Amino acid sequence: MLEAPNRRPARFITFEGGEGVGKSTQVRRLLNNLGREGIDVVRTREPGGTPKAEAIRSFILQGRSEVWGAGAEAVLFAAARLDHVTQLIAPNLTKGTWVISDRFCDSTRAYQGLTGGVDDRLINALEDLALDGHNPDLTILLDMDPETAFRRVEQRTIEDGLQLTGDRFEKEELEWHKVLRANFLDIARNNPDRCVVISAEQSEEALESAIWSLITSRFPELQGRSLA
Ligand code: T5A
User: Fold this and answer.
1) Exposed e or buried b per residue across 120-129, where buried means at least 16 C-beta atoms within 10 angstroms of its C-beta
2) Phi then psi for 124, rounded to 5 degrees?
3) pTM of the prediction?
4) Architecture of domain 12-220
5) CA distances from 23 to 17, 104, 172 (A)
6) Pocket test for ligand 1, best of 144, 154, 169 (most atoms within 8 A of CB)
7) Is a pLDDT exceeding 60 seen at residue 166?
8) Average pLDDT for the chain
9) pLDDT tens-place string over residues 27-81
10) How many CB atoms lie within 10 A of CB 27?
11) Where along the chain do its domains lie?
């Protein structure tokens, strides 16, 4: 079948990485930059993105699933993802709208699988079921030393006048987060066509520019477009 003229393929981009590395900040900046290029794009997050998935998010991040262990948490993240994919991600991509997600399936593999010790077979099965072929076109892994990232989160908490309590995973020890970082890097190494690692230890603006260079070199429809 002939494609409609000027119809550009919708892209699915995910951001991954440890706590506080600057994912949400860069998701917002990329959303604005794509919007300026006239691209229809939605921003979403995991866990969450739909009302049912947001309910699972609250349950997990309040620490209520912790007693069941990492395996049960992997199943809960996958349940949230299944709703997110079928209700938000797939319908948007089908109608030609790009989707940018703040975390996706690599977080389950890194947190619950490689760091939490959940068997690969369960992680693979959950991923197959929840994604149903909706793999990201590009995953940007923001990488940085967790100690520096924690200082950023601390600073944000102070600026927002909040108490530093730490959600379910922020409360883990620094060593745990160092292992998590190495595991994210392993996932990127094992998926070189999809994943690109970018150092998050640079200013917001420098990072935005590095991400824009990547996007414009990756997707031919944006080639030669520079940042405003
Ligand atoms: N989880 C999630 C799993 O265990 N399994 C799964 O399958 C999934 C999907 C989600 C939690 O759930 C876990 C992982 C997480 O623990 P969340 O609240 O979404 O919880 O947690 P984070 O993704 O870590 O979100 P954060 O908001 O804490 O971190 P971000 O989004 O990486 O960082 P951001 O952009 O909010 O920035 C943090 C602070 O740094 C500043 C910002 O202004 C902000 O104050 N900042 C910078 N400062 C200096 N230089 C830069 N370049 C900066 N960029 C941002």
Assistant:
1) eebbeebbee
2) -65, -45
3) 0.95
4) 3-Layer(aba) Sandwich (3.40)
5) 7, 12, 19
6) 169
7) yes
8) 94
9) 999 999 999 999 999 999 999 999 999 999 999 999 999 999 999 999 999 999 9
10) 22
11) 12-220
* pLDDT band of 163, cuts 50, 70, 90: low
Q: Which atom of ligand 1 is nearest to the CA of 111?
A: 4
Helices (H), the chain: 23-36, 51-61, 70-84, 90-94, 105-107, 120-131, 146-159, 174-190, 204-218
Give the containing element (helix H, strand E) for 21.
Answer: none
Q: Mutate which of 107, 109, 148 to test ligand 1's pocket (most atoms within 8 Å of Cβ)?
A: 107
Residue 4 in this model has a pLDDT that exceeds 50? no
Q: End-to-end distance of the chain based on CA atoms, in angstroms? A: 36
Residues counted in the chain? 228
Computed from CA positions of residues 125, 72, 86, 34, in that sequence, does the dihedral angle turn out positive or negative? negative
Q: Would you call 94 helix, strand, or coil by DSSP?
A: helix
